[in-house]
Structure formats: C-alpha cells, structure tokens
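DM from R.C. (forwarded with permission)

"hey, sorry to bug you on a friday — could you get me a structure for this? deadline for the figure draft is monday and I only need the backbone to look sensible"
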Amino acid sequence: MNAPATLRRLRTASPGLLVFVALAACAVTLTIVATRGPTAPVGEDQQVQQIAAGLHCPVCKDLSVADSPAPLARQMRQEIVQKLRAGESPDQIRADFVAAYGDSVLMTPPKRGLAGAAHHLPLVVLALGLLVSSMVLRRWLRKPQSDPLAEESPPLSASQRRTLDAAVARLREEEPG
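My reply, with the result:
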C-alpha cells in the first residue's frame, strides 16, 4: 500500500486523529527538551561561569555574579573557584551562598512554596489543556454525521400526495414569469 493513499484515507476518515497525533508529538518533544536540560560544563572556568550566572550579585541586584563588576562579585567568583577545587559540588556551593545571603541570591526561584507553584503551573496548564482537547476531540469524533437528504422519509399517502401536488401547482401559478 502506498503512503500517499494511506495518508489521504487517514485525512478523510478522521481529521481529528491527525490533530491528536500532532498534539501528542508536540507534547513528547516538549517533555524531552524540558527533562534533558542543559549539558554539563566541561572545564572549571565553565563551571564557575555557570554557577556564578545562577547567583544574583548582592551589591547590584539586577546583575548576576558572573556579569557584575562589583568587588563582592569578584570575591564570590574566587570563592566558587576555591570550593570547586576543594571538591564541592555546584549544588553545595549554591547552598552555601543561600545560607549566607538567603534565597534572594538565586537567579531562579527555589522550587518550593509559592515559587514552586509558579514553576509547576505551566505543566499543570499543559496537562489540563491536553485533557480538555482530548475530551473535545473524542466528543467531536463520536458525534454522528447525519445527512438529512440521505435519510429515508416514510412514503406519502394518496391524500398527502394530492395536497402536495395542489400546493406545488398554486406556487407555480403565483410565480411571476
């Protein structure tokens, strides 16, 4: 069986199925991209840059420690280097800075409390959207497609036929031209 004929038959048989398959493919792709995340840095400089980019500079709140020219940011970058060389993990280093400066030092909010709700809200909205769209799609596909011209009507009786013929004759007489 050739592919164009199969695709054409699939389109005419159930257009909603194609929409559902496209939505499912998008959802799978988004899930893979979201769970994969960024790749791990290779060198020490890249690790320092990544950790420092995730921390707010306490002096200039609108810049990260990686971008800030402030002396305190420079000291924080040096501290990150020392801690990495001492064998601490990036998560331990971040935890030390959170202990010293509070959650406000993080560029991304922690995934707990109100900030956690904001973090998980897009996933909840996506799941609800998929659920509602699948319900609508099911209802749409189950709805019977009726053609009023294709339905058979009961045969007319003789008196009904005479009444219909008389009505058609009157319409023809009244019709101009």
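R.C.: lifesaver. The chain has a mean pLDDT of 80.
me: no worries. DSSP finds seven helices and no strands in the chain.
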